[in-house]
Amino acid sequence: MELLCNAPPHASVPERYIFPPEKRAAMELDGVDGPDDGVTLPVVDLHRAALSGDEGLRQRVAAEIVRAGKEFGFFQVVNHGVDKDLVRGFRDAAAEFFTMPAEKKLPYCSNDQSKPFRLATSTTYDRGETRYWLDYLKLQCHPVSDELVQLWPNEPTSFRPRLTEFSEAVHELAQTLMRLIAEGLGLSAGFFAGDFSGGETQMNVNYYPPCPDPRLTLGLLPHCDRHLLTVLSQGDVAGLQARHNGRWLLVRPVPGAFVINFGHQMEIITNGALASVEHRAVTNSAVTRMSVATLIMPKMECRIGPAPEMVDEATNRAKFREFVFSEFMEAYYTASASREDVLESFMIHEN
Questions:
Q1: Cα 339 to Cα 328: distance, rounded to the nearest angstrom
Q2: Which stretches of the chain are assigned E, i.e. beta strand?
Q3: In this protein, which residues make up the domain named Fe2OG dioxygenase (predicted)?
Q4: pLDDT category, 32, cuts 50, 70, 90?
């Protein structure tokens, strides 16, 4: 497997990574700034007090999250309770993994999506022959067990303990966010607990080496997430873009923040109130960028459809049919992660 992280710096972009002009990101300043008209994502202060007994503050934070979600589908959170040293510890360990000699990483290279830990490059989705400018780790990260940890690499030596700590802390943050989202929508606090969020939590660690000409490439294809909720550590290097009002909005890094976005399952369960928004990654020529996305998944046998509380037969009929999550996963891969194509399979059309 030909990994970017194994190759010496490229003087020019290899032909297989060059996208046709109509698919490129129209970037300025080496792919770091884009046509976002100065719009920035909302930053929600979780106020650790909101997680305790201050009911009024909790309600205000919940309402702010839902308001941000309805407008953008993305927001950032600060004062979230995940220690910055814990975040830095895992990010450093993951970055060290990518920079290890090629022969040490070779045993983990695989395109077999059933593996609970694997290293690969470009993308598994078929959008043509052009390759995306990234390497990535895909791994199962929660619930943590001795058997699971043994599947993770033992080099660097810090990888296993740092991933365990990071996974546990981010999982707790995700549970907090789902409770606040539920309350902000007028649902019971535990609405998203159980099967909706009880699947095996996945993690994508995306590694984007410097690209000699970011104008020609993309780091990650435009897509929407297939699951319920994403908690992303994007570090201090910009590159994530989200669709907003028909244009691409650069998600500018906020120190210590996590970026939160909704997956297709959240859109379907809330009957469109909280939409899954298309996003992509662009490259830059100056520095390596690495993002760590934790993906909260339903159980494969979970039945999903619009929550009765989010449907009104007179004014807001159900927009989606009920299905089993495993059926959605199959449709998602068949549609190569295309938002329109995958949702078309589950939408209810009025006669």
A1: 12
A2: 43-45, 74-78, 117-121, 135-142, 201-208, 220-223, 229-233, 240-244, 247-250, 258-262, 279-281, 289-296, 303-304, 323-324
A3: 199-298
A4: very low
> What letters, b where the CB count within 10 A reaches 16 and e where it falls short, cover 88-102?
ebbbebbbebbeeee
Please give the span between the terminal C-alpha atoms of the chain, in angstroms, as a whole number: 50
10 Å CB burial of residue 130 (0-12, 13-18, 19+) is: middle
Question: pTM, whole model, 2 decimals?
Answer: 0.93
The correct CATH number of 27-344 out of 3.20.20.70, 3.90.660.20, 2.60.120.330, 2.60.40.10 is 2.60.120.330
Contacts with 75 (C-beta within 8 Å, 6 or more apart), sequence order = 41, 42, 43, 44, 65, 68, 69, 259, 260
Q: What is the pLDDT of residues 260-312, one digit of tens each?
A: 999 999 999 999 999 999 999 999 999 999 999 999 999 999 999 999 999 99
